[in-house]
């Protein structure tokens, strides 16, 4: 029964991704079993921050807003800590709530306590942040790379562990091949992950930076960036061939053109839907066409 309670307190997201191991215990405190698995108020000063925290930037304004909310309503969702020796704890997740509580001078904070070794700490910190989608693309990519390097996971194992498609994991990891200036631009929100992905196949650093500057200067969309990269890599991009106009339209174009006194233009999509465009040269010409349509 206690085991089921512990998994429920941990939260469905993490408990589904990470299997708890009762055989691994990083705490030597003989009284650890009395608090592990419980949610209690603990002294903020007894909590050390998580050294494996993948998030490197905390928005000060957002922290102040959270602090204001905590001041009015309290900490609604407990943080998670691991038990260390004596009366010391280490933050596993909830650093924003922890920082905001300190900001308003709170001395205690509600916390769910568990036992975890260093590897589990790294996994929980990385996976929780990834699942919450609150990291920028480069932070996600670095988190994936750390899981691969430090826990010796393959990309396939990593995709299973974080609940993402293998192709998604690969796309994030490829962002780390970009020039550091582009990575910083992505982290600061000047360009999106889509822009970054479009530039991955540009091997020359100077070309990458030139495209990056053009994106910022001309506010290029991801699609425009993709076209720019194609032009750079393969020369002039050929215009897509127009879908042939069906015979039933071809046979009628001349009659319609003669009726309106202008050469009309007809375009047809792949689904068979189309559009008729009637040009005019002046207000008088427009009114003439309008009367014909009546």
Provide tags for this entry:
two-stranded antiparallel ribbon; 294 residues; Conserved hypothetical protein from pyrococcus furiosus pfu- 392566-001, ParB domain; elongated; disordered N terminus; 52% helix; 14 helices; 5-stranded mixed beta sheet; alpha/beta
Can you offer a commentary on this structure?
The chain has 294 residues and is of the alpha/beta class. Among the domains are: 2-116, Conserved hypothetical protein from pyrococcus furiosus pfu- 392566-001, ParB domain; 247-293, no CATH class. The chain is 52% helix and 11% strand. The chain has 14 helices and 7 strands. The chain has a 5-stranded mixed β-sheet with strand order 1-5-3-4-2, with helices on both faces. A two-stranded antiparallel sheet has the order 6-7. A hairpin with a 5-residue loop joins strand 6 and strand 7. Helix 3 (60-73) packs across helix 4, helix 6 crosses helix 8 and helix 10 runs parallel beside helix 12 (222-234). The protein starts with a helix and ends with a helix. The model is unreliable at 1-29 (pLDDT under 50).
Short synopsis of the structure:
The chain is an alpha/beta fold. The protein has helices at 2-10, 12-17, 60-73, 95-103, 118-132, 137-151, 155-162, 166-174, 180-187, 193-199, 205-218, 222-234, 247-260, 283-293; strands at residues 39-43, 47-48, 79-83, 89-93, 108-114, 265-268, 274-277.
Lay out the secondary structure.
Layout: H1 2-10, H2 12-17, E1 39-43, E2 47-48, H3 60-73, E3 79-83, E4 89-93, H4 95-103, E5 108-114, H5 118-132, H6 137-151, H7 155-162, H8 166-174, H9 180-187, H10 193-199, H11 205-218, H12 222-234, H13 247-260, E6 265-268, E7 274-277, H14 283-293
Parallel strand pairs: 2-4, 3-5
Antiparallel strand pairs: 1-5, 3-4, 6-7
Helix pairs in contact: 3-4, 5-6, 6-8, 7-8, 10-12
């Amino acid at each position: 029964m206690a085991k089921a309670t512990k998994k429920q307190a941990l939260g469905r997201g993490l408990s589904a991704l990470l299997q708890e191991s009762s055989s691994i215990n990083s705490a030597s405190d003989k009284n650890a079993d009395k608090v592990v698995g419980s949610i209690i108020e603990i002294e903020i000063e007894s909590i050390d921050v998580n050294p494996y925290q993948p998030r490197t930037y905390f928005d000060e304004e957002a922290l102040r807003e959270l602090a204001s909310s905590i001041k009015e309503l309290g900490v609604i969702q407990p943080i998670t800590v691991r038990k260390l020796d004596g009366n010391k704890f280490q933050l596993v997740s909830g650093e924003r709530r922890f920082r905001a509580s300190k900001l308003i001078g709170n001395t205690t904070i509600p916390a769910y306590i568990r036992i975890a070794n260093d590897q589990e700490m790294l996994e929980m910190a990385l996976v929780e942040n990834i699942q919450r989608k609150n990291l920028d693309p480069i932070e996600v990519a670095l988190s994936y790379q750390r899981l691969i390097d430090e826990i010796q996971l393959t990309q396939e194992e990593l995709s299973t562990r974080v609940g993402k498609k293998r192709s998604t994991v690969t796309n994030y990891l490829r962002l780390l091949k970009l020039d550091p200036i582009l990575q910083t631009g992505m982290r600061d929100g000047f360009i999106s992950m889509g822009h970054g992905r479009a530039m991955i196949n540009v091997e020359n650093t100077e070309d990458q930076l030139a495209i990056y500057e053009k994106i910022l200067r001309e506010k290029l969309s991801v699609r425009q960036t993709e076209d720019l990269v194609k032009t750079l890599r393969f020369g002039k991009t050929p215009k897509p061939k127009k879908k042939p106009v069906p015979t039933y339209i071809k046979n009628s174009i001349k009659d319609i053109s003669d009726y309106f006194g202008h050469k009309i233009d007809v375009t047809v999509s792949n689904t068979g839907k189309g559009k008729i465009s009637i040009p005019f040269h002046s207000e008088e010409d427009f009114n003439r066409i309008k009367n014909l349509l009546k």
